[in-house]
Design brief:
Structural class: alpha+beta
Bound molecules: zinc ion
CATH architecture of the largest domain: Orthogonal Bundle
Strand content: 5-15%
CATH topology of the largest domain: Neutral Protease, domain 2
Shape: globular
Largest sheet: 6 strands, mixed
Order of helices and strands: EEEEEEHEEEHEEHEEHHEEHHH
Distance between the termini: 46 Å
Length: 342
């Protein structure tokens, strides 16, 4: 991320704590490679110089700085863009624990401790701590979803894998807003884009992407809705609404944005002209926080975003019509809405 500035807490003349008093006391601690889920038992991270980490994994503090940076940028994105005060909109900070467990290739939001838990990576597929900005934006958005629509997977198998459209929509919203956190931060060392996890060191250069989800070969993310989407694993299924969002924002076909080339396909070649990221994001946020509920599927999400577009821009607006078209371009339409679900 290069050099970034953070607000910290001075506890003595030459003692500083990695805690931000201007963002509801958001603090990062070290789990010391234990499976510690009680934030108060995490080790406080301090400095005598108020300079933290060295940008390399050789310093334990580097992961902590990246975590704290990602969380404060995510909180700022939600506050500046939507007036949201903290993840649950209750003026509370979001805590983090880095170096969680041993060789854990994951990062996740735990609502019980109101904290992000960051593993160090497994050393093979994920070689570094999972503290990338879009990963933090993704995980904290799960916290926002938990505090609003509470979208839930339709079922969970014995291995803990989740399936179904409301869960897929949850993963998708996490990617959409996670990507938006990058655009908000606009850090030249981490240029914003519609790719998720491009800093994780994966061979395919990203984990998922919004413009053409099926380019992902790791999780088999899908581009279009079909009746089998009801039974799809949630990360794979997320492609349907992520793709609709991208088309709403940027439109179909070839486009280069910030040096990244996109070529978003559509169902049956339907062309879509985007309305811009700002409006698309406003529509999806309003839909999430006003109209989605725990069982919202992709067809319900279409209706929710149409309602949000109507509220914001009017029923006859280009924005409203483009929401309808973007969903049609991922094969979600009024005509193919399953009768038994509505
Ligand atoms: Zn997720």
């Amino acid at each position: 991320m290069g050099t970034v500035s953070l607000t910290t807490t001075q506890t003595a003349r030459t003692s500083f704590l990695l805690k931000d008093p201007t963002r509801y006391g958001t603090e990062t601690r070290d789990a010391k490679n234990k499976l510690l889920e009680n934030f108060s038992k995490g080790t406080k991270i301090t400095s005598t110089t108020n300079k933290w980490g060295n940008g390399s994994v050789s310093s334990r503090t580097s992961a902590a700085v990246d975590a704290q940076y990602g969380i404060t940028k995510t909180l700022d994105f939600y506050k500046k863009t939507f007036g949201r005060k903290g993840i649950a909109n209750n003026s509370k900070g979001a805590q983090a624990m880095v170096h969680f467990g041993n060789k854990i290739a994951n990062a996740f939001w735990d609502p019980t401790c109101n904290c992000m838990l960051y593993g160090d990576g497994d050393g093979t597929m994920f070689k570094k701590p999972l503290v990338a900005l879009d990963v933090t934006g993704h995980e904290l958005t799960h916290g926002v979803v938990e505090a609003t629509a509470r979208l839930e997977p339709t079922y969970v198998d014995a291995n803990g894998n989740q399936y179904g459209e409301p869960g897929s929509l949850n993963e998708s919203l996490a990617d959409i807003f996670g990507s938006n956190v990058e655009f908000y931060a606009n850090n030249p060392k981490n240029p914003p884009n519609y790719l998720l996890g491009e800093k994780l060191g994966l061979a395919q250069k990203f984990l998922r992407r919004l413009d053409h989800p099926s380019l992902d070969k790791l999780e088999g993310t899908i581009d279009y809705w079909s009746s089998s989407t009801y039974y799809t694993e949630v990360h794979a299924g997320s492609g349907v609404s992520s793709h609709a969002y991208y088309l709403l924002a940027e439109g179909s076909g070839k486009k280069t944005i910030g040096g990244v080339a996109y070529n978003s396909p559509t169902y049956r070649g339907l062309s879509v002209k985007g309305i811009g990221r700002t409006k698309a994001t406003a529509i999806f946020y309003r839909a999430l926080t006003r109209y989605m509920v725990s069982t919202t599927d992709f067809h319900d999400a279409r209706v929710a975003t149409l309602k949000a577009a109507k509220d914001l821009y009017g029923a006859g607006s280009t924005e409203y019509k483009t929401v309808d078209r973007a969903w049609a371009a991922v094969n979600v339409t009024a005509a193919n809405t399953p009768a038994d679900r509505h």
